[in-house]
Design brief:
The protein is mainly alpha-helical. The protein has one domain. The protein is built from 11 helices and 2 strands. A two-stranded antiparallel ribbon has the order 1-2. Helix 1 crosses helix 5.
């Protein structure tokens, strides 16, 4: 990840804007969780180590899976962060939630760039410089891409919740995460289909229920 800390001033202005949103120790916890482990570095290293097909690792690439996992990685790491790290993690999660509606509403004209700046600086509490780079990202650098973080995160949480509901106390998040990563970069609906059909822990439960039903049917 590369993010310049000095943002050039607007034409006619000599003042350079400074991004200070990541220049303190507390922010390093969330950045590490997202970009390194258990985030993107683990995500892509797992595909290499498991031999995930090129079709899934390259041609199926989608930001919803990739960035959804990155934000989910922050979520599962947050309880282990110091309190100041947890605060910044929540702030950055709030930023992803803000992206989910600011980006499309800028495209539709429901919000103006000034509205986006106001929300990001006053509600999310980003620096003016960072908020400006965000609004530029939504409007012309990569329209639509920033919405993928929160959408992918919520879809992954929803999937986990459904698996936990089926498994109860036997749910093992490590096995769940290993299976998710082993699928490569599947879009949310295909990932859900794979988990519900092939996650070994769920298949064992289905098999046990079927066997129990068979035993009941054959016992006089």
């Amino acid at each position: 990840m590369f993010l310049p800390l000095n943002v050039p001033a607007a034409p006619g202005s000599a003042q350079t804007k400074q991004i200070d949103d990541f220049t303190f120790a507390a922010s390093s916890w969330t950045l590490t969780a997202h970009e390194a482990r258990p985030g993107h570095e683990l995500q892509f290293a797992s595909m290499v180590e498991r031999g995930v097909s090129l079709a899934r690792s390259l041609f199926a690439f989608n930001s919803v899976n990739v960035e959804g996992w990155g934000l989910y990685a922050e979520y599962i790491t947050k309880p282990y962060m110091p309190l100041d790290g947890q605060l910044i993690s929540l702030q950055l999660r709030l930023m992803r939630a803000a992206r989910a509606f600011i980006d499309p509403e800028l495209q539709s004209g429901k919000l103006t760039p000034a509205d986006g700046m106001r929300i990001l600086t006053q509600d999310v509490m980003l620096s003016d410089a960072f908020a400006n780079t965000e609004v530029e990202r939504y409007t012309f650098r990569a329209p639509g891409q920033a919405t993928s973080y929160f959408y992918g995160y919520t879809k992954l949480l929803e999937l986990r919740k459904d698996v936990e509901a089926r498994q109860g106390k036997s749910f093992d998040q490590h096995k769940f995460h290993d299976f998710i990563l082993a699928q490569g970069l599947l879009p949310p609906d295909l990932l859900r289909k794979a988990v519900m059909a092939d996650f070994p822990a769920l298949k064992k439960q289905v098999s046990f229920k079927q066997n129990r039903a068979t035993v009941k049917a054959t016992v006089p």
